[in-house]
Design goal:
The chain has helices spanning 118-125, 129-140, 183-190, 207-225, 227-248, 274-290, 293-307, 314-324, 326-330, 341-346, 361-374, 381-385, 394-407, 414-421, 423-426, 431-443, 450-459, 463-474, 478-491, 497-506, and strands at residues 13-15, 27-29, 50-58, 64-67, 71-75, 79-89, 95-98, 101-106, 109-113, 149-152, 161-162, 167-170, 198-200, 310-312. By secondary structure, the protein is an alpha+beta fold. The protein folds into three domains: 2-122 and 144-157, Sandwich (Immunoglobulin-like); 198-346, Orthogonal Bundle (Neutral Protease, domain 2); 364-506, Serine Threonine Protein Phosphatase 5, Tetratricopeptide repeat (Alpha Horseshoe). The strands form four sheets. It has a five-stranded mixed sheet with strand order 8-9-10-12-11, with helices on one face. A hairpin with a 4-residue loop joins β11 (161-162) and β12 (167-170). α4 packs antiparallel against α5 (227-248), α4 crosses α6 (274-290) and α11 (361-374) packs across α13. The longest helix is centred in the middle third of the chain and has 22 residues, at 227-248. The structure holds ligand BES and zinc ion (ZN). Ligand BES binds next to β11 and α3.
C-alpha cells in the first residue's frame, strides 16, 4: 500500500464553490479509469497489477473525505484513515473531498451528497439498493466489498457512474425523482463482480469489464423488473451501438472487441459503445450456446470464483468457458462459421449474433407506431391524440425519441407540433429525455429551442451527453455552430479535462491548451 499526504498534485477535478451544487465550498475528486491515477500517486498504473492500499488524508475543517476503501476512520485534526483490504487495480483507487454528508438507504448502503442534495438522494434510493445487491449475490456469488455506498458528484462529473469499490461515484443527473435511471446503479453494482473482482488485464480487452457487466446488469434487471422492461432498456443500448457504428463506419478498428492500443495512445481515446453493447451480444451468445439460463448463471459464478482478485485476458475467459462446458468444446462451438470466437474478438462490425429482445415488443411497438405517425407528411392528429403516453415509462419515451431522431429531419413543422403536444418530453427534467430532445432539436434545425441545448450543457458535463451534442451542433447549421462556440466558451472551465479536450477536438480548437 502507499501513503500520501496533503497537497499531493492530482489529475482529478478541483472545483470552485460555484461549480458545486451548494455553491458554498470547493470540492475535489479523482477519476482513475483509465490511466489518470498515474498523476495522483506513483505506482504501476496498469489493470494487470493489483494491490491493497491505505491512505491518510487530512482535510480542512468542515470537509469530509471518502475513498474506495473497505474501512475508514476519522481521527483528530480532520484526518481520515482509509484501508482497502482486497487487492484492486490502480484505476479503482478514488478520493473525493467536499462538503458532503451521508444518509442510510439500506443495511450496507449509504448515499453521500452535498447537504442540499442529500434529501433528494435518500429519496431516490431509499430501500432499493439492497435488493440489487441481494440479487447480484444470488446470481454471481458473495459481495466481498462490505459496504456499497453511492456518492453523488458535482454536475461536471464526466460519467453516469464509476464503480469505485465500496463507493460508486455517480452523476447528480440520476436524481430524476422517480428512480427511472436506476439501471446505472445496477450497472455499477454489477462491476462488483465483473471488473472489480475479475479485471481486464489490458485496456485493449475492456469489453471483459463492460460486456460482462452489461450482461450482469440485465440479468439483475430481469430478475427485479422483468424481461419486458429489461429488453426495452437493451433495445436503447442496441440503438446506441447502431448510431455509433453508423457514424464511425462498421469496419472501424475500434469496432472490434479486442482493440489494439499502440504505445502512446490514451486508452480513454478508444472509448465507445462497442465493448458495452457488442460485448453484451457476445456474452449473450455464450449464454445462447449453453441454452439454459441457470447453467449459464452458474458458469458466471464459477468464472468469478476462478478469477477473483486476478486480471485476465479474453483467452483466459473463453478457455475457462470451454473447459466448463466440455460438450460445447467437443462440438467446436468456438469455430462455427461466421460465429468464430476469433471473429467476435478480432473482426470489426455489427455483432454476428443479437439476443432476442422480443419480450420488450409490448413496450416498443406502441412507441414505434407513434414515431411512424409523427414522421409522416400530413400529420394525422386524430390518430396521434388517440395514443395516450401519460403512463409511459422513461425508457419507453427514450425509445420513442430515438426512433424520432432516426427518422429526422421530420417534415416541416412536425417537431414544433411534437414539442407542444408533449410538454412532458420537451420540458422534461430527466437527463436521458433532455439529451434526446436536444438531439432532435438540432437534427431538425429547430432554432426556437436552441436555448434548451444551451441550458442542458450548462447544467451538467457528462461525456456521453456532452460530446454527441457538440458533434450534432458542429455538423449542423451556422446557427448551430455559433451555439456550440458560445456554449463551450461559457462552460469549458467547469468541464472535466478529458471532456474539455474532446470537445475542443470536435470544434477544431485542438492544441490551444
Ligand atoms: N467504468 C465505467 C465508466 C468509465 C469507463 C470511466 C471508461 C472511465 C473510462 C462505468 O461503469 C460505466 O460504464 N458507466 C456508464 C453507465 C451505463 C453503461 C449504465 C456511464 O457512465 O454511462
Ligand atoms: Zn461499466
Amino acid at each position: 500500500g502507499s501513503t500520501f499526504c496533503k497537497g499531493v498534485p492530482h489529475d482529478g477535478q478541483d472545483l470552485l464553490p460555484e461549480q458545486t451544487a451548494g455553491k458554498q465550498k470547493p470540492y475535489m475528486y479523482t477519476q482513475g479509469q483509465a490511466v489518470l491515477n498515474r498523476s495522483f500517486f506513483p505506482g504501476f498504473d496498469t489493470p494487470a497489477v493489483k494491490c491493497t492500499y491505505s491512505a491518510t488524508v487530512q482535510v480542512p475543517e468542515g470537509f469530509t473525505a471518502v475513498m474506495s476503501a473497505t474501512t475508514w476512520e476519522k481521527q483528530k485534526d480532520n484526518t481520515f484513515v482509509f484501508k482497502m483490504e482486497h487487492p484492486i487495480p490502480s484505476y479503482l483507487i478514488a478520493l473525493a473531498v467536499g462538503d458532503i454528508v451521508s444518509a442510510e438507504v439500506g443495511p450496507r448502503s449509504r448515499v453521500w451528497a452535498e447537504p442540499c442534495l442529500i434529501e433528494a438522494a435518500k429519496k431516490e434510493y431509499d430501500g432499493v439498493i439492497e435488493e440489487f445487491l441481494a440479487v447480484g449475490e444470488k446470481l454471481f456469488g458473495p459481495y466481498v466489498w462490505g459496504r456499497y455506498d453511492v456518492l453523488f458528484m458535482p454536475p461536471s462529473f464526466p460519467f453516469g457512474g464509476m464503480e469505485n469499490p465500496c463507493i460508486t461515484f455517480v452523476t447528480p443527473c440520476l436524481l430524476a425523482g422517480d428512480r427511472s435511471l436506476v439501471d446505472v446503479i445496477i450497472h455499477e453494482i454489477s462491476h462488483s463482480w465483473f471488473g472489480n473482482l475479475v479485471t481486464n488485464a489490458t485496456w485493449g480487452e475492456f469489453w471483459l469489464n463492460e460486456g460482462f457487466t452489461m450482461y450482469a446488469q440485465r440479468r439483475i434487471s430481469t430478475e427485479v423488473y422483468g424481461s419486458a422492461y429489461t429488453c426495452l432498456e437493451a433495445a436503447t443500448g442496441r440503438a446506441l451501438l447502431r448510431q455509433h457504428m453508423d457514424t464511425t463506419g462498421e469496419e472501424h478498428p475500434l469496432n472490434k472487441l479486442r482493440v489494439v492500443i499502440e504505445p502512446g495512445v490514451n486508452p480513454d481515446d478508444t472509448y465507445n459503445e462497442t465493448p458495452y453493447e457488442k460485448g453484451f451480444c457476445f456474452v449473450s451468445y455464450l449464454a445462447h450456446l449453453v441454452g439454459d439460463q441457470r447453467k449459464f448463471d452458474s458458469f458466471l459464478q464459477a468464472y468469478v470464483e476462478q478469477f477473483k482478485f486476478q486480471s485476465i485476458t479474453a483467452d483466459d475467459a473463453l478457455n475457462f468457458f470451454l473447459e466448463y462446458f466440455p460438450d460445447l468444446k467437443k462440438q467446436g462451438v468456438d469455430s462455427r462459421p461466421g460465429l468464430e470466437f476469433d471473429r467476435w474478438l478480432n473482426t470489426p462490425g455489427w455483432p454476428p449474433f443479437l439476443p432476442d429482445l422480443s419480450p420488450g415488443q409490448q413496450l416498443m411497438k406502441p412507441a414505434d407506431e407513434l414515431a411512424e405517425l409523427w414522421a409522416s407528411d400530413g400529420l394525422n392528429m386524430e390518430k396521434i391524440e388517440a395514443v395516450d403516453i401519460s403512463a409511459w415509462k422513461t425508457y419507453q419515451l427514450v425509445y420513442f425519441l430515438d426512433r424520432i431522431l432516426q427518422k429526422s429531419p421530420l417534415p416541416d413543422g412536425n417537431v414544433e407540433r411534437l414539442s407542444t403536444t408533449y410538454p412532458k418530453i420537451s420540458k422534461a427534467q430527466n437527463a436521458e429525455l433532455r439529451l434526446r430532445w436536444c438531439q432532435i432539436v438540432l437534427r431538425n434545425n429547430h432554432e426556437a429551442e436552441y436555448s434548451k441545448v444551451k441550458a442542458f450543457l450548462h447544467s451538467q458535463g457528462k461525456q456521453k451527453y456532452t460530446l454527441p451534442l457538440y458533434r450534432a451542433m458542429w455538423g449542423g447549421s451556422e446557427a448551430a455552430r455559433a451555439l456550440a462556440m458560445e456554449t463551450f466558451s461559457a462552460t469549458a472551465p467547469q468541464l472535466h479535462i478529458n471532456v474539455r479536450n474532446y470537445v475542443k477536438k470536435i470544434l477544431g480548437l485542438e492544441g490551444s491548451d
